Amino acid sequence: MDRKLLEIQTLSKGINVLYVEDNPGLRTNIVQLLGKVFTNILSAADGLEGIEVFRKNRPKLVITDINMPKMSGLEMAKKIKSEEPDTKIIYITAFNEKEYLIEAINVGVFRYLPKPTKVNQLLDALYDALKAIHYEENKHLYDTQLHDIFNYQNNLLIMFQNGHPVIVNQRFLDFFGVDNLDDFLKKYNSIDSILKEHQEFLYTTDKQTWYEEASANPGKLFHTKIVDCHEENHHLIMKLREVPHKEKSTIVSLDDVTELNLLTLFDKNATANDKVLKDKKTVMKFMKIVSENNAEVKLHNFYRGLTITNPTVIVHMDDEQVVVKTSYSQLKIVKLVKNMTISSEVFPSAVLCKLVKEIDFDKQMITFSDMQFIQRSGNDRKNIRLEPAGDEKATLFIDNKKFFGEIRIVDISIVSIKLELNALPPRFETGMEVNISLVLPTNKTPLSINTSATLYRIDELERSFHIVLLFELNEVKHKGVAEYLANRQMALIREFKALEIKA
pLDDT for 79-117, tens place per residue? Predict the structure, then answer.
């Protein structure tokens, strides 16, 4: 009994109840009982008063006697149903003649209880009526406010109330091979069970449920892996939206992107699919998802190694190109370097935009095409790599012999340096040990570094070669290079700001 009372108290929040009874003593007793579960109770002594109270307050639940002076409960119910067909009416009456029951059914009775009514019978009737009211409210919300959303495109859609699924669309039912939500819950038990574990994807863990994570980030896009009724894995993008003016109500949409074959991209132990990564259609599909959901996008560039990142909005796209709106500083750097990368929470990796078609400074827009996913971008660097000012000097020693070719420092970090050579020394190959001598300008005396290094990479250019050397510095030299890089970074910031002012 206590459990049923608690459930009724929960369901009755925000719902008014009207009790109509011409017996004052009985009316007082029932009103007291209703006061244990309802916060707002209306009462009337006959049908005529009852219809007046109803019209002023529009309660969703009415409990009434049948035989009353001035206007019977049946006549009152007919008027109520003609004005508010969804109102739930419970009759409590001593009359049990068949004609009363038939007429009550014709009017639209929800429950017919005999007098005297047992408390458990009344509570059961209230519980069922409140459940029906909530169901019809959600159904009405679906029909009126969410009809377009539920039937837009081909997404799986679920409506939640207090964290529990209450309505799903036909696409959802077809996906799982069930006829209704109850069949789904019998087959799968819960939504948690259908979200499969996958690296960087959303699913329920020991620490947090998927719904808690999604609810804490409404509007954010999540990757999910779900198995359909044919035991096939699907890759779906999930988004949770809060329903306006409906407390603790949410809509979850799932957009199937399985055809892009990107599941393995999120498994770091699997081999990346190069063909898919370079597929422009794949990039455009993700761009479309981001654009339709107004998800956050960031634009990244480098000015002589200095990271320039700004939020960006996709304003237009078609099958061939994308137009974004961003800050003036980002437009300026794009004009200088001619390419850029874009990142988003929904992308499996950064997108490299290799062809900038137009830069419109008046509208602050960039039009670009020729895009592909890249496994890593400059934004993922663990260490800052900056271009030198020009006063830095480098000398290369191979087998303790000085290299006399032309050397230019391309960039330098705390653990590496990239050099441009006009020619390669004999027997020069990755993995070999060399020595390098550096002179870096500082605020005080120049910083001299002599260290061994490992040849990490060789890139052949049209008329020269780039080599990358890795090294480990002692604490003193490490601190010196860090100070040099900090000063160089500040100088580049001032330099870049000056470019903005001139423009």
Answer: 888 888 888 888 887 766 566 677 777 777 888 888 877
In this structure, what are the phi and psi dihedrals at residue 371, rounded to the nearest 5 degrees?
A: -115, 155
In this structure, how many other beta carbons lie within 10 angstroms of the beta carbon of residue 310?
A: 15
Helices (H), 299-386: 328-337
CB-CB contact of 368 with 357 (8 Å)? yes
Rounded Cα gap, residues 45 and 52, in angstroms = 11
Amino acid at 173: L
**Cα separation values, 290 from 37, 155, 211, Å:** 46, 15, 21
Burial of 214 (0-12, 13-18, 19+ CB in 10 A): buried
- Nearest Cα residue to 66 out of 95, 26, 34: 95
Angle 161-208-206 from CA coordinates, rounded to 5°: 130
Q: How high is the pLDDT of residue 377?
A: 59
pLDDT of residue 176: 94
The C-alpha torsion from 397 through 388 and 424 to 450, rounded to 10°, is: 10
Length of the chain: 503
Please give the pLDDT value at position 272. 42
Rounded distance between C-alpha atoms, residue 408 and residue 458, angstroms = 15
Higher pLDDT, residue 145 or 72: 72
Please state the φ and ψ torsions of residue 468, each to the nearest 5 degrees.
Answer: -115, 125
pTM, whole model, 2 decimals? 0.50
Please name each of the domains of the chain with its CATH number. 2-141 (3.40.50.2300), 150-265 (3.30.450.20), 274-380 (2.40.10), 393-490 (2.40.10.220)
Biggest distance spanned by C-alpha atoms of the chain: 117
Whether the bond into 116 is cis, omega within 30 of 0: yes
Q: What is the rounded distance in angstroms from the CA atom of residue 234 to the CA atom of residue 318?
A: 26
In the block, residue with structure tokens 């160089």: 488
**pLDDT at 270 (0 to 100):** 36
